[in-house]
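Worked problem 6 (solution included).
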Amino acid sequence: MPRPLTKTEREQFLSDVRVGVVTMTDEGRGPLVCPVWYTYSSASGVTFCTKKDARKARLLRMGARVSFLVQVEGDITKGILPKYVAIEGPVVKLETAVMDRDLRPILHRYLGAEIGDAYLKATRGDSADGELVVQIQPQRWLSRDFGG
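Solution. The predicted structure is:
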């Protein structure tokens, strides 16, 4: 039977390297749903970066409530069952990103230090200009582990 994850389990799940999906309201259209690379900590919540001129950046504002989902789809043939953690909460940080504080840690998380730094150099030089850092503070949680 599926069961909710404990607080410790969901924080570990969000701390593992997975792609997150952020969802925000887009007035007059359906909600905008975007995959993002992110970091998570119990103290600061979910943090990701986006280009200032991206559609999602135009829709985000301080205090706006957004949803964020991380999932493992599962593969029954390999004994991997679905699991997910969804959060809802306000945007509590929306400001110009700083390379070493915001952007580099996320790229290192997903690509490793060497490839992450090479990617940053090739795509951004030594500057995080044009990037925003976004932080979401979880207030509501929904999780399921179909293997538990």
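Discussion: Strands lie at 20-24, 32-36, 38-41, 45-51, 65-72, 83-96, 131-136, 140-145.
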